[in-house]
Amino acid sequence: MxxxxxxxxxxxxxxxxxxxxxxxxxxxxxxxxxxxxxAMVESGCDVIEIxxxxxxxxxxxxxxQDAVHRSLVxxxxxxxxxxxxxxxxxxxxxxxxxTYWNPIDRYGADRFARDLANxxxxxxxxxxxxPEESGPWREAxxxxxxxTVFLVAPSSPETRIKAVAECCTGFVYAASLMGVTxxxxxxxxxxxxxxxxxxxxxxxxxxxxxxxxxxxxxxQVARYADGVIVGSAFIRxxxxxxxxxxxxxxxxxxxxEMAAGVRA
Length: 264
Known about the structure:
- The protein is an alpha/beta fold and 264 residues long.
- 49% of the residues lie in helices and 14% in strands.
- It has helices at 4-13, 30-42, 62-73, 78-89, 101-107, 109-118, 135-144, 158-167, 190-199, 215-222, 232-240, 244-262; strands at 18-24, 47-51, 94-98, 123-125, 147-149, 151-152, 172-175, 206-209, 227-230.
């Protein structure tokens, strides 16, 4: 298992930001998700977030909602998510699961943490789990040896940023804007200030997500963040593809563009 600590140390040594790609398990198919995530790694992604499909994705915009809906129609279950993690982890990339809290709660926190670690996963991102309610999950994760990542937002006051950062072990996820996921024409100007405020509260890496869709935007964010998170842009390439082969080629092309961006 490649750890997040190893990834960020290497990126820092290379004087660049880490590139983090997101893709839901089960999309475009169960095996296709592993193939697409592998293409993302081979084209330059350092970390892969595997999304656990959920029927009420509060944080996700229309592109990810579309992909998640297709994944659920494909019959994707937690066992498939874990199999996807196992397949992607074999590439050597640090592999996380991004999930809302309810599926973990239903599955069992201790069991989920243990099974994720056994699959080669390095941690989780839980966007709707608050610091006040995160104790049991952080304990289960620590016992399993996996990292926990939580989110801060532009609206977060300093006390909230501190509380969230204290719950994180892998990195802090800085949401660049108030809203849902999705590539945009420009990255929110609030992102840089949020990274600066978060760094005052923690020594952990701070990574920016929401709104990054081009290599130029990745380069912009990489100038001030430790990691650049890209999800909807990769998914859009797969949604627009005529077949799996062209989808994988489009993912590789975008991955190379983003990798060049974080190295600019």
